[in-house]
Recover the amino acids of this structure.
């Protein structure tokens, strides 16, 4: 069943019907839910409907010098719902964090058609359970997010990116160690191999990014050069990696940051993209659901509690 | 001695006998005098002496205790240092209190990956003490951080002055071990050796802030942050709370993200000065502590901008902490402000409402108005940058009318926070204190969804019952009691 509601109420009615009839919901088109409900620049908060495109949202917030600090590649192809359902983020994740760090509140349509709010629109709030955390990254398995309130940040006044080639995993390992022990505060520590701009089979590129005031960024750029990061870079590698890939089907590996080089060594010469500072690695392989562990007992109980008739998508895979 | 003490019933005797099979006798408290300590937390309006307190040494003992409680159908309550301010650990229904204070070690530190594995009873500041020499710290810094435990921080998703820039507990806890209410031990989220992404549902995130109602958290993996390279700590002196509030709004609007932005009004400043002798100006209507941190480079320009914005809002003076000691002393005064209240009043009730930052001047005026209307003094010391207020309503518990007025004034302030688009709690939690407010802040479907989540973890409602949700039963059975003095 495909849902294309015009309003929240309509979505609720359609879901309630699907639940009663136990009809799986294959697709929900929220393209009518595409506006900013409220942007309070002085409070650094914004409430937006989840069908809004991420680039449109960022552009609107940018007019007041603010943004939601989430930067997945190809934002013109993503809605706020995509970002929240699949907990998407980009290179700046090392410095700025993830969706769960910026969502203050959600409005969610549950499988039985009821509409709930979690959290609120203030930056600090512990009233009630933090249900929002469960819906973010759940792939829509527990409910359909229709609106989100974000904590915003001022856009960094300056940003600079630098690259450094690494010929071997050993070199990569020592470069990453030198970054960890440095006094730099990068917003990006990425690493990648393959794509149009690198030709050698085993060569890798480490990308370092700084975000902040002009003075902070300039000081860090100066010190990064001493660590071999002097070649100006951009973030096109991230876009290049994702442009031909399904985010949901790409194999993802997560290790402690110090274990990243070893994980990369295991890939032989396969292309990859890594959020090296976070120890997260996306490979050129397709995910193999057969090798993923089954959902835990608690997760299954959560699914039963929120979607007993299984009309919404399955639980997101465990790594 | 008339203490309204509880005499062990037959059921409790059987439970005690079974607990003695699991724990050594120093680990079980059942003597009424020993139990008195556990009758409340830092919310003292309601008290109840528990029937039994147990002090486990390991997650396995916690699991055994929970299974034993289940066998006897006894409710149980996890407890850390008891610094909670909302009665979240009030031992209603003769619950067994499971005190985690003996499980208090920083078990392992991974400096390279900036993580630590700590036991739930570990005191917040001990983590930073253990890693400071490596240039790291644990960021959330509740004012009670020298006493409160990580387990308690997880239960209430604690904040603190520096959460304006660094976030609250949930932003710094990677994973946790929990004994479910049926006795199973589970790990939720990242382990010490594991990657930060685990896939699946974020059950870790759901447990943080659940006020100990989903199970007993026994161990936690926390994220460690780098100690900032440099600081600028400024003290803005203002003639009025209004001017200081406007300065807060202007600083936020300027694009600067301070590490902390704290306000103290005149009444609290006078009490703090009398107690700690920092040298605060006693005639100031409001003081604003603004801390900027990060790389040294560029920090001074930001400090000068903050100074300019304070002066633009009629600050009569902007002082700077010139040494690390001055900075430490200033923060000590701020964090121990509640402790100075004893000079003003025998009792106080603190509220923890939140408003959108731009509504700060409005809520502060409302508090002044409420103070006059109810004839109660209400000093304020709070996280201005977050819009998180802490009006301290002063009362004397020996005056029943004053107690009543204090509660009413508190409720009035919280209702106003909701009207302004805020929340009834920014960091203290709901507990028993604000349970009746949940229906004002949330709709029935919202509360039903929360109840579903609770049932998923604790179908029998054994773990920390009668908290968070409005419960008519509480009003009849658990009326406020006067403090017992021994």
């Amino acid at each position: 069943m495909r849902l294309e509601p015009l309003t929240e109420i309509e979505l609720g009615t359609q879901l309630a019907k699907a639940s009663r009839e136990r009809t799986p919901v294959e697709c929900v088109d929220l393209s009518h839910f595409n506006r900013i409900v409220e942007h309070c620049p002085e409070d650094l908060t914004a409430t937006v409907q989840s069908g809004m495109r991420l680039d449109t949202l960022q552009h609107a917030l940018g007019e007041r010098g603010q943004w939601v600090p989430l930067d997945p590649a190809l934002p013109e192809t993503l809605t706020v719902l995509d970002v929240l359902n699949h907990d998407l983020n980009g290179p700046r994740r090392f410095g700025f964090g993830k969706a769960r760090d910026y969502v203050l509140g959600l409005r969610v349509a549950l499988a039985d058609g009821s509409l709930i709010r979690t959290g609120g629109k203030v930056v600090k709030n512990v009233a009630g359970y933090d249900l929002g955390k469960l819906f973010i990254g759940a792939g829509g398995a527990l409910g359909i997010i229709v609106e989100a309130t974000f904590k915003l940040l001022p856009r960094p006044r300056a940003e600079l990116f630098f690259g450094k080639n690494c010929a071997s995993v050993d070199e990569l390992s020592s470069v990453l160690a030198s970054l960890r022990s440095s006094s730099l505060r990068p917003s990006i520590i990425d690493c990648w191999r393959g794509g149009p701009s690198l030709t050698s089979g085993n060569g890798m590129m480490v990308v370092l990014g700084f975000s902040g005031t002009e003075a902070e960024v300039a000081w860090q750029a100066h010190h990064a050069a001493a660590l071999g990061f002097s070649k100006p870079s951009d973030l096109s590698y991230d876009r290049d990696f994702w442009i031909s890939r399904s985010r949901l089907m790409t194999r993802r590996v997560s290790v402690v940051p110090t274990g990243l080089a070893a994980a990369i060594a295991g890939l032989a010469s396969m292309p990859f993209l890594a959020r090296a500072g976070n120890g997260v690695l996306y490979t050129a392989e397709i995910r193999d659901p057969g090798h993923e562990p089954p959902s835990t007992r608690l997760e299954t109980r959560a699914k039963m509690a929120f979607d007993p008739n299984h009309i919404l998508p399955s639980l997101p895979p465990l790594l | 001695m008339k203490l309204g003490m509880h005499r062990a019933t037959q059921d409790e005797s059987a439970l005690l006998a079974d607990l003695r099979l699991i724990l050594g006798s120093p680990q079980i408290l059942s003597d009424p005098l020993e139990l008195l300590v556990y009758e409340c937390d830092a919310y003292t309006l309601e008290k109840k002496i528990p029937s039994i307190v147990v002090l486990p040494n390991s997650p396995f003992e916690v699991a055994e205790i929970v299974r034993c409680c289940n066998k006897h159908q006894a409710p149980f309550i996890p407890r850390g240092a008891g610094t909670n301010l909302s009665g979240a650990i009030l031992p209603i229904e003769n619950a067994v209190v499971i005190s985690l204070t003996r499980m208090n070690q920083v078990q392992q530190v991974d400096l390279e990956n900036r993580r630590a594995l700590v036991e739930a009873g570990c005191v917040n500041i001990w983590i930073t003490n253990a890693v400071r020499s490596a240039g790291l710290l644990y960021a959330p810094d509740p004012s009670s951080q020298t006493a409160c435990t990580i387990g308690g921080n997880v239960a209430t998703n604690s904040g603190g002055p520096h959460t304006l820039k660094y976030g609250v507990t949930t932003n710094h806890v990677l994973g946790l071990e929990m004994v479910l209410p049926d006795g199973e031990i589970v790990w939720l989220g990242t382990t010490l050796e594991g990657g930060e992404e685990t896939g699946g549902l974020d059950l870790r995130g759901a447990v943080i802030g659940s006020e100990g109602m989903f199970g007993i958290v026994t161990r936690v993996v926390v994220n460690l942050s780098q100690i900032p390279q440099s600081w600028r700590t400024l003290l803005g002196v203002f003639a009025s709370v209004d001017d200081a509030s406007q300065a807060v709004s202007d600083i936020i609007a300027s694009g600067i993200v301070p590490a902390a932005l704290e306000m103290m009004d005149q009444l609290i400043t006078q009490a703090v000065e009398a107690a700690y002798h920092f040298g605060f100006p006693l005639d100031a209507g409001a003081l604003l502590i603004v801390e900027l941190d990060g790389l040294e480079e560029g920090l001074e320009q930001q400090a000068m901008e903050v100074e300019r914005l304070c002066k633009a809002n009629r600050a009569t003076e902007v002082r700077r902490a010139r040494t690390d000691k001055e900075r430490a002393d200033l923060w000590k005064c701020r964090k121990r402000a509640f402790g100075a209240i004893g000079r003003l009043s025998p009792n106080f009730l603190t509220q923890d409402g939140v408003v959108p930052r731009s509504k700060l001047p409005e809520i502060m005026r409302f508090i002044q108005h409420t103070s006059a209307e109810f004839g109660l003094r209400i000093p304020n010391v709070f996280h201005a940058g977050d819009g998180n207020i802490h009006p301290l309503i002063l009362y004397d518990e020996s005056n029943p009318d004053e107690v009543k007025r204090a509660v009413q004034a508190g409720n009035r302030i919280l209702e106003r926070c909701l009207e302004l688009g805020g929340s009834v709690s920014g960091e203290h939690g709901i507990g028993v204190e604000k349970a009746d407010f949940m229906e004002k802040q949330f709709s029935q479907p919202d509360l039903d969804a929360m109840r579903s989540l609770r049932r998923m973890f604790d179908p029998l409602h054994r773990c920390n019952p009668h908290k968070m949700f409005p419960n008519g039963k509480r009003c009849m059975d658990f009326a406020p009691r006067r403090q017992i003095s021994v």
User: Anything to note?
Assistant: Chain B touches chain A through 84 residues (CB under 8 Å).
